[in-house]
Write a structure and sequence with these properties.
The structure holds two protein chains of two kinds. By secondary structure, chain A is mainly α. Chain A has one domain. Chain A has 14 helices and no strands. Chain A starts with a helix and ends in a 15-residue tail after the last helix. Chain B is an alpha/beta fold. Chain B folds into two domains: about 210 residues, no CATH class; about 90 residues, D-Maltodextrin-Binding Protein, domain 2, CATH 3.40.190. Chain B has a five-stranded mixed beta sheet. In chain B, α3 runs antiparallel to α10 and α6 runs antiparallel to α7. The chains are: A mainly alpha, B alpha/beta.
C-alpha cells in the first residue's frame, strides 16, 4: 500500500472515530465547549479500546475489521443521536471570541505566539523523524507492532522484556490503530500529540472550574504547554501524556456534576445519567468527588511502568 | 485476558525486580525529597545554553526601558527581567539543596541509602529523564503561595488549594508506590497539570506574568532546539533532520548503530526474522518503517527459532538452540551482536547452541 493510501485510510479511520466521539458527546448535551471536546476525546478513545479488545480474542484485528468496527460504532452513535433529537454541540464561536480576547494580555499573547510556532516544529518532529526513545523502541512501539502482526492484543511469546506483556495497553492501542490504518509507524506519535492538546484543554477547564476567568485559564494552559517534559513528550511514541490526559480529564469531569462526572472518572466506563452539566458554582464545588482515588490511580499507573534495572544516570555524591 | 493467558488477574508489576518502593520511613522520606528535588530542573539548558534565559531577560528589560521612557511604567517588565535572569542560578541552588538532602540521606541510611539515588541536576530535554524546567519551579512556588493567601482571604475556593497541592500528593504517592529512578519525575505530570490550573493567579502580578512569558518561551525554545534524542542542529553538528533512520534511532541513545545499519541494508523488507535479545534491548526497529518484516521473539535463554525464520539476530550473551549447518553468521560486532542467515532447513535431531 502506498503512503498516500495509508494516510487516506488513517484520516478516514481517525475521522470516523472522531465523529463517533463527537456525536456521542452531543448526546450528553454538554454546555461547555471544553467539556464537549474532552468528552469527544474520551469517548473516541473508549470506542477504539473496546473495539480492539473485542476483535482480539479471535485474532480478527486487521485494517479491514478495524475500519468496519469504526463504521459500526459511528452508525450506532448516529442512530442514537437522531433518536435523541439531534442534540447540537455547544457553540465554539463565543468561546473562541473569549479566547481571542484573552490575547490582549501580553503575557498570554507571547506564550501563545511561541506555542504556535513550536507546534509546527513539534508536528514535524512527530511525523517526519523516526521514534527513537528508549522505552518506545523497547516496548511501546514493539508491542503495538507485535499485536498488529498477531492480529490482536495478547501474550507475546518469547518476550524477555516483561513490559511487553504486563503493562496496561491503552496508549499502545492507539499506536496500533495508526499502524494498522496507515501501514507504517510514522503516525504512532498521534496518541501523544492528541493527548498534549487534551492535557492543555484539561488544564484550562480545571482553571475555569476553580472560578478563574478565561484569561487566567488561557494563561495556565499556555504556561503548562511550555514545560520541557510535556513539550518533548508530545512528538514521542511514549505514553505518559496519554495517561496524564485521561487522569486530568477525569479530574476535570470529577469536578463537575452528575452526568459529566460519570463520563470521565472511569474514562467512559460508567453510563451517563441526568440532563446536563453546568459549570460548578462555589456552593456545588464541594461535590467534586474522590480526588484521592484519582491520585491513587495515578500512583498505580505510574508504578506499572519502566521496570528497568539500575539507572545509568546515577552519579554518586553531589 | 490476564486470567486466560497468565492464570491470574493481576499483572504483578510491583513485584518486578527493583521496582517496589521500600516503605521504611527513612527511605520513603529520602525518596520523596529526591523526587521533590527534581523540581529544580534545567531541561535543554546545560551550561552556556542557559544564557538563552538571559537573552529573554534582556528582551524584557529593553521592553521595560522603552515603557519607562514613555512614562507608562515599565517597572513590572524590569522586575520580570530580573526574575527571568535569576533562573540561571538554579544550578547553584541545586548544588546547595542537594547537599542538604544528600547529608540527610547519609545520616538516615548511610551510603547504602545514598547510592540508591542519582544526585545530578537534570539538563537533558528528553521524554524519559527530562523535567519540568525552571518555569514549573517558579509557578509551583509562586502560585501555591498566592492561592493559599487568596483562599485564606476567602477569594478562592478550597479546591484551588487542593489543586495547587496536587504535585505534593502525587509525589508522596509515587514515592510510596515505586522505587527511585531518574525516569520517575515524568510520572508527576498529572499532579503538575492539576497544579497548573491555578497558575492563572500569576496573571494578577504583572512582573510574574511577564516573567512567565520570558521563562516559558525560552524553555520552550531550548527544549526543542536542544532535544537530546532529536537535536535540531542549531547548537550541535548532529541534526535529526540529516540522519538516516538507523542513525536517528541509535546515535543518541546507546544502541549499536552498526547492527541496525546492517539489518536495514541486508535483510529484505519482507523477511521473517527471529530476534533473540534480552530485556532492555530494542525490538521495534527490526520491523522496518512499514512494519513489513515478520519479527518473532525467541528466548535468549536457549529458545529455538521457528523453521520458517530466514534471519536470526542474537543480542549479547544470547544462547539460542539451532541446527549447526542451517545458519551462517553474516555480521558480528564487538558488543556481541550477531546476525545469521538461514542457509538450509533444520534437519538435525536436536538443535544445540
Amino acid at each position: 500500500m502506498s503512503e498516500g493510501a495509508g494516510l487516506l485510510l488513517l484520516v478516514v479511520g481517525l475521522g470516523g472515530l472522531g465523529a463517533t466521539g463527537a456525536l456521542a458527546a452531543c448526546c450528553l448535551r454538554l454546555r461547555s465547549p471544553i467539556e464537549y471536546l474532552l468528552a469527544s476525546y474520551l469517548l473516541a478513545w473508549l470506542w477504539l479500546v473496546a473495539l480492539t479488545f473485542a476483535l482480539s480474542p479471535a485474532r480478527w484485528l486487521t485494517r479491514g475489521t478495524l475500519l468496519a468496527g469504526i463504521a459500526v460504532g459511528l452508525g450506532i452513535v448516529l442512530v442514537a443521536w437522531i433518536r435523541l433529537g439531534r442534540p447540537r454541540a455547544p457553540g465554539l464561536g463565543p468561546a473562541l471570541v473569549r479566547c481571542r480576547d484573552s490575547l490582549r494580555a501580553p503575557a498570554v499573547a507571547i506564550l501563545v505566539a511561541c506555542l504556535a510556532v513550536a507546534a509546527v516544529y513539534i508536528v514535524a518532529l512527530a511525523f517526519f523523524t523516526p521514534s527513537n526513545d528508549q522505552d518506545a523502541l523497547e516496548y511501546h512501539l514493539a508491542r503495538a507492532a507485535l499485536w498488529k502482526q498477531q492480529h490482536g492484543l495478547g501474550h507475546v511469546d518469547g518476550a524477555d522484556d516483561a513490559r511487553l506483556n504486563l503493562f496496561p495497553p491503552n496508549a499502545e492501542i492507539g499506536q496500533l490503530a495508526t499502524m494498522l490504518l496507515a501501514g507504517r509507524d510514522r503516525y504512532a506519535t498521534l496518541p501523544q500529540l492528541l493527548a498534549y492538546v487534551a492535557l492543555v484543554l484539561s488544564v484550562a477547564g480545571l482553571a475555569r472550574r476553580v472560578s478563574f476567568g478565561v484569561k487566567e485559564a488561557a494563561f495556565s494552559a499556555a504556561a503548562f504547554a511550555t514545560l520541557p517534559i510535556v513539550v518533548v513528550q508530545a512528538p514521542s511514541a511514549m505514553n505518559d501524556l496519554v495517561v496524564g490526559s485521561f487522569l486530568t480529564a477525569a479530574a476535570y469531569f470529577g469536578l463537575a456534576t452528575r452526568r459529566a462526572t460519570t463520563i470521565a472518572l472511569a474514562v467512559g466506563v460508567a453510563s451517563p445519567s441526568g440532563r446536563s452539566s453546568r459549570r460548578s458554582s462555589p456552593s456545588r464545588r464541594s461535590r467534586w468527588s474522590s480526588p484521592s482515588a484519582t491520585l491513587a490511580g495515578a500512583g498505580r499507573c505510574c508504578s506499572s511502568r519502566s521496570p528497568r534495572g539500575a539507572s545509568s544516570d546515577r552519579s554518586g555524591s553531589p | 485476558m490476564n486470567l486466560v493467558e497468565t492464570g491470574g488477574l493481576g499483572t504483578d508489576v510491583p513485584n518486578q525486580p527493583n521496582q517496589s518502593a521500600d516503605l521504611e520511613p527513612s527511605v520513603l522520606a529520602v525518596t520523596s525529597l529526591r523526587l521533590a528535588l527534581s523540581v529544580l530542573d534545567m531541561s535543554g539548558a546545560p551550561g552556556p545554553y542557559a544564557l538563552v534565559f538571559i537573552a529573554a531577560a534582556i528582551g524584557l528589560a529593553i521592553a521595560g526601558l522603552v515603557q519607562l521612557r514613555r512614562s507608562r511604567g515599565g517597572g513590572a517588565l524590569l522586575l520580570a527581567a530580573a526574575l527571568t535572569a535569576a533562573v540561571v542560578a538554579i544550578p547553584v541552588v541545586w548544588d546547595v539543596v542537594v547537599r542538604v538532602v544528600f547529608k540527610l540521606a547519609l545520616f538516615a541510611g548511610g551510603h547504602s541509602l545514598t547510592d540508591r539515588f542519582g544526585w545530578r541536576l537534570n539538563t537533558k530535554a528528553e521524554p524519559l529523564v527530562g523535567g519540568y524546567g525552571p518555569l514549573a519551579l517558579v509557578l509551583l512556588a509562586a502560585a501555591t503561595i498566592a492561592v493559599v493567601t487568596l483562599w485564606r482571604r476567602r477569594r478562592l475556593p478550597v479546591l484551588a488549594v487542593a489543586l495547587a497541592a496536587a504535585p505534593l500528593t502525587v509525589l508522596v504517592t509515587l514515592a510510596a508506590a515505586v522505587s527511585w529512578d531518574p525516569t520517575r519525575p515524568r510520572f508527576l505530570v498529572f499532579g503538575v497539570a492539576l497544579s497548573a490550573a491555578t497558575w492563572g493567579v500569576a496573571l494578577r502580578a504583572r512582573p510574574l506574568a511577564y516573567a512567565t512569558a520570558g521563562i516559558g518561551s525560552a524553555a520552550l525554545f531550548l527544549a526543542l532546539a536542544n532535544y537530546h534524542g532529536k537535536p535540531s542542529g542549531l547548537f550541535t553538528a548532529d541534526s535529526i533532520w540529516a540522519m538516516p533512520r538507523w542513525e536517528a534511532q541509535t546515535t543518541r541513545n546507546g544502541f549499536g548503530a552498526d547492527v541496525l545499519r546492517f539489518v536495514d541494508a541486508s535483510v529484505p523488507a519482507d523477511a521473517r526474522l527471529s530476534l533473540a535479545i534480552r530485556g532492555d534491548d530494542w525490538i521495534h526497529p527490526f520491523f522496518g518503517p512499514t512494519l513489513s518484516r515478520h519479527v518473532e521473539l525467541v528466548s535468549p535463554r536457549r529458545g529455538t527459532p521457528s523453521r520458517e525464520a530466514q534471519w536470526l539476530v542474537l543480542g549479547p550473551n544470547a544462547a539460542v538452540a539451532r541446527c549447526g549447518g542451517s545458519w551462517q553468521a553474516v555480521f558480528e560486532n564487538e558488543a556481541g551482536w550477531r546476525v545469521e542467515r538461514r542457509v538450509g532447513p533444520d534437519r538435525c535431531p536436536s538443535p544445540s547452541d
